[in-house]
Amino acid sequence: MQTQSHRIDGHDVLEHVLDVPLDHAAPGGERIEVFAREIVRDGGTDRPRLLYLQGGPGGRADRPAQVSGWVDRALEDFRVVLLDQRGTGRSTPADALTVPARGDAVAQAGYLAHFRADAIVADAEALRAALGSAPWTLLGQSFGGFVITHYLGAAPHGVRAALVTGGLPGLTASADDVYRRTYAQTARRNELYLARYPGDGARLREVAAHLAGTEELLPTGERLSARRLRQIGIRLGADLGFDALHYVLENPFVTVGGTRRLTRAFLADVGTLLSHATNPLYAVLHEAIYAQGAPTRWAAHRLREEWDGFAEDADPTDAARPYYLTGEHVYPWQLREDPSLAPLADAADLLADKADFPPLYDPAALAANEVPVAAAVYVDDMFVPYDLSVATAAAIRGARPWITNDYAHDGIRTDGEHILDRLLALAAR
């Protein structure tokens, strides 16, 4: 392992790069790099380590510009390790440039199949061994909690305690099970949003109708379609998301030479919400994180027609029918319209048809769990179904859930210091 260091605001920052097998079941084969940034507060060298596993899939670890929020609280008791999960950040990238270079769609899909939670846990254990670290405390947000749930079954000897925020998965839930629930919750969030900002519904319909007859291009060069526009609804699941969406929609039009067009600022804001240039694995692997012995077959796409408000061909001018924004749902056409995803679209189709992804969770091992586990379960979570999380908390021996409606899915971002403090206290009981 290679390590470099620098200083920031009373802290040592250690940057670790480690070679690991692409396939941990074949350690003699191809190898990739994983990167982790470790923050150590002055006087905290002897503290145990906390490994943070971020949400996603496909998001790189936090890059704190200053030590604040949950990181500041964690550094009171721990050295904090921020892992760029394989394929992200400074770990060997898996994106629209590097993956197609491996060959045809079959080769690409075979490569990407090694980027799920099981491989991330094996990487983490390899990093822990290279650091010479005792079992560490895990903190996982969203998909990071899915990784922790696998960790508890596969390598509990490496875990001192496990803390989860908005990320307890259904142990046996299929992609269909998850998306039926998330569509229902997304519909509810749409209604709450429109109750707060009643004028935004009409403005959304107006923009969607405009897009049906006028070519408008995002900064990436792709045409903005009404169905792509509706994907800005992913912000509905955030604590401050309603307000953020309102500001995007508050003034979308400008008249130029007698012609009504969308403003450049509006298109730029929408493009930022829609692009996966920095996290392509989020779209490519999003359904694969639920695959356990059966293909997902683009579950979100198949199921959307079960709700009138999410129908792909919904007419925005028909005021008698609801017209909803979609949420954390990935669609096959999306991968062909987003330039940062298009080179991976055929491989993503193969992953959606893959029937032999192994199970990710071990119910028997979790039922015998001896690791202290504390989990924040958000009643109004739009992305991780509440009922599945509660059932999983009951299935993990000794897990202590904190059930709250004080936060949406991203509470760790808005009140991380308090949430971490509460979870540490729960796990210590």
Tags for this model:
alpha/beta, single chain, 9-stranded mixed sheet
CATH architecture of the largest domain: 3-Layer(aba) Sandwich
Per DSSP, the total helix count is 16
The H-level CATH homologous superfamily of the largest domain, spelled out, is Alpha/Beta hydrolase fold, catalytic domain
Q: Could you give a short account of the major beta sheet?
A: 9 strands, mixed
How many structural domains?
Answer: 2
- Alpha-carbon distance between the termini? 36 Å
* Rg for CA atoms: 22 Å
Order of helices and strands: EEEEHEHHEHEHHHHEEHHHHHHEHEH
Identify low-pLDDT runs.
none
Strand percentage: 15-25%
The spatial strand order of the largest sheet comes to 1-2-3-5-4-6-7-10-11
**Structural category:** alpha/beta
CATH fold type of the largest domain: Rossmann fold
Percent of residues in helices comes to 25-40%
CATH class of the largest domain: Alpha Beta
Keywords: Hydrolase
Pfam families: Abhydrolase_1
Protein name: Alpha/beta fold hydrolase
InterPro entries: AB_hydrolase_1 (IPR000073), AB_hydrolase_fold (IPR029058), Peptidase_S33 (IPR002410), Serine_prot/Carboxylest_S33 (IPR051601)
